[in-house]
Specification:
Layout lengths: L4 H7 L2 E16 L2 H5 L7 E15 L8 E6 L20 E8 L8 E2 L5 E4 L4 E3 L8 H7 L3 H8 L4 H5 L3 E4 H14 L22
Antiparallel strand pairs: 1-2, 1-4, 2-3, 4-5, 4-6, 7-8
Helix pairs in contact: 1-3, 1-6
Length: 204
């Protein structure tokens, strides 16, 4: 699903740019076995962040100015023990590819880490590490597979990836919109036709 930009835009209906304003709590994804346990198990924790949308590239249920809940699995560091150092940062600005996680009994939106890109202060996308494996993230960030692999071979891959900057957000957005034009996506609402009702959690 990350092989090309087109497969990414077909997979994720909400493609937006937003700034993380706060870390707001934790939600838990419960599997059927978690629910059947006696007592029920809490499930997998997901950290919840509040994100203010400042640009919409393509979306069916959010607009500029909305404040949405975005969920992220904490995960683990390179040693398999420490917390994931690539958690969303409060105050950070990101390009998000998102889907509604309501069907998973979670309130908010989420997506794979490979479909999320931090934006530098000068408006360029930074590496997320997925460029080593998938063509889609590489085409969006502008970071080549060779650059990514070289960074991951270093003594501290996370530290080596962080400074890598690719193309500008404007260039990435143009590439995404070109892929949307080719992809079999739902048509946008016509004048006079009600838009899709926002998902629970969207604040306007």
């Amino acid at each position: 699903m990350m092989a090309t930009v087109r497969t990414m835009v077909e997979r994720y209906p909400q493609i937006v740019v937003g700034t993380v304003s706060d870390q707001t709590g934790t939600q838990y994804l419960q599997s059927p076995s978690d629910l059947l346990s006696d007592p029920p198990l809490a499930g997998m924790p997901y950290v919840e962040f509040a994100v203010a949308i400042d640009e919409v590239i393509s979306a069916t249920s959010m607009s500029v100015g909305d404040r949405i809940p975005v969920l992220q699995e904490p995960g683990f560091g390179q040693d398999g023990v420490t917390a994931n150092p690539r958690l969303l940062q409060v105050g950070g600005r990101y390009l998000f590819f998102l889907e509604d996680w309501g069907p998973y009994r979670l309130r908010g939106f989420g997506g794979y880490a490979a479909a999320r890109f931090a934006i530098s202060e000068d408006g360029r996308l930074t590496a997320n590490g997925a460029e080593c494996e998938y063509g889609g993230p590489s085409d969006i960030s502008g970071i080549t597979k060779e650059q990514c692999e070289q960074a991951k071979r270093s003594a501290d891959p996370g530290q080596a990836l962080s400074p890598l900057k690719g193309q500008t957000l404007k260039e990435a957005a143009a590439r995404i919109r070109a892929a949307i034009a080719e992809a079999p996506l739902p048509a946008p609402p016509r004048p006079g036709v009600p838009a899709v009702t926002p998902s629970p959690g969207v604040v306007r």
